[in-house]
Structures are given as structure tokens and as C-alpha cells.
Amino acid sequence: MNRPLVSGLRSAEIGVPDVAAAEKFYTDTWLLSVAARTASTVYLRGTGAAHHLLSLTQSEQPQMLAVTLNSASRKEIDALAESVPAHGGSILRAPGPIDEPCGGYGLTFNDPQGRILRAVCEDARHADAAVVRDRPERLAHVVMNSRDTPAAQAFYENALGFKLSDRTRIMAFMRCCSDHHSIAFADADNDCLNHIAFVMLDLDSVMRGGGRLKEAGYPIEWGPGRHGPGNNLFNYFLGPSGFAIEYTAEVSQVDDSYRTGMPEDWKWPPGRIDHWGIAAGPSADLKAAQRQIRFASAPKA
User: Fold this and answer.
1) Percentage of the chain surpassing pLDDT 70?
2) pLDDT higher than 80, residue 91
3) Across the strands, what pairs with 57?
4) How far apart are CA 16 and CA 243, in angstroms?
5) Are 53 and 104 in the same domain?
């Protein structure tokens, strides 16, 4: 595919056993705010224009319910309805109105490895969008584990129009807009969620966030540091129900002139796994969490 049918990452939809506790964490400590709520779901926004960047739905066990992408118009949504099954995915809900507070027009589908995704357009936007110190603005990326990264990469390229930014020894970083990556796949023996990253204003905000989380009893599980691919700052934490979450900033902005990096371009000196080399590697708890949150199965017809 030559043109992308999606234009960015909008939101992550997660299931948690205790919605009230998760809402309290993500509003009081992570510093999102409530955009809307229904009988079953709380929708949380950042300071950016997106109606919400995280939704919390009651679930018996923690799970990743869906990843939602934006498309430019109904033309792209309708094209996805044809390209997804043509490349091995399956349509779960045909293009049509979105029955959620955000509204809009979209479709829901499975990728070939069973993850539920949505693409939407014409969804509600907040007029008071702003860049605010020490508060998440939007989602940066969702990283997903994959038993077969080359197959996952091929689907996202051919069905959705993503492009490969970098391939390291263990990860494929995929872009659909100017962000270096909006989706990434980590080579693994499972297809679980790896982590969800939230964009902060700057380095100071990432560091202040780290201090605030530590004071609230959530230690930094990895960081602070600066990644290789994407060159973004990071601090990782474990949120309620064991979701791995990241504060990040300064994500590289790229275009088609960006030279795709290969594993030989991303080799670190012994004992180092990021540019700074300040922090130790990911904690054992973070590594465990990055293989525990499964993607929800599609409802049976």
C-alpha cells in the first residue's frame, strides 16, 4: 500500500477489575481527566484535542480491549473495510456510526494475530486543547508482543499503510504519521500487550511525573533514560491491574526521508541499553507485566 489509511493513534481501551480504583489512579496520580462516562466505561482525556486517550471498562481480569486509530475521512474507513480482510484480518463491525460519547464514524476489526483494533473519523474533539506542564497530552505509542513480528509488520504495512521506521534485534517500530512510531512489535513467545506510552511536554515533566508516582507508592520500574529508536525520553511504571505504562517526551518526528534502521544500526556497548546509561534495565516486575495483559477475544457471532 502506498498511502496510509490511518493517520494516528487515538486511544487505548482497557478492561480492569476495579474501575473506580483505576479511575482514581489515572486522574489523581497519572493526571488525566474524565471526558465522559457511561454505565460501563469511563473515558479519560489528556490535554490534547482527542476526546479520550484511555477508556476503563469493567472486566473480570485485566485485558487489552482494543487499540483505536484515527483515519482522515470516511473514504479511508471504507477502504480499510476492504483492505483488512484482503490481508488476513477480519471485520468485526462494518463501517458506521460510533455508539460512544465520542461519536464519529468507524469500523472494528481483528488483525491476523487476534488483536481488536478500531479506526475512526469525525469523532469529537476538545476545543480547549493545550500543552500543559506535567500532564499527558496524548498517546505516543502502544507496543505489542508478537510471536511472529514479520507477519504482524506485513499486515500493518499492507492493510493499514504503516511504514517501518526501525527494526532492532528484538523490535519493529511502525509509523502512520510524523511520530517515529505509533505501534511497535516486540519479538516474544506471546501476543500480549507490552506497554502503553503517554506523551508529556518535556524532560522536566517526565522527571516530575517520576517523582509524583514514587511519592504515591509507584516506583520507577525502568528509567529515566533516552531510547535509541525514536530518541524519546522514558520513565516506566506499573499502573493498577498490572498494566505497564510509560511517560515519554521528545519523540522523534520523521518523514519519508528517514532512513530505516536495521539491527546492525542499533547495537549498544556492553552493559548499556539506552543512550544515557544512567538507569538499570527494566525491573523483574516490569518484565513480568509486559507478558501478562492479554488482548480480548472478539465476541462470538
Assistant:
1) 98
2) yes
3) 15, 41
4) 10
5) yes
- Asked whether residue 1 is domain-assigned, the answer is no
Same domain as 180, residue 64: no
- Same domain for 291 and 192: yes
Q: pLDDT over 90 for what percent of the chain?
A: 96
pLDDT tens digits for range 237-278:
999 999 999 999 999 999 999 999 999 999 999 989 999 999
Full residue range of the structural domain in which residue 196 is found: 138-295
Residues 109, 148 within the same domain: no
The answer, yes or no, to whether residue 301 has pLDDT greater than 60, is no
pLDDT band at 289 (very low <50, low <70, confident <90, very high): very high
C-alpha span between 62 and 296 (Å, rounded): 9
Whether residues 17 and 75 share a domain: the answer is: yes
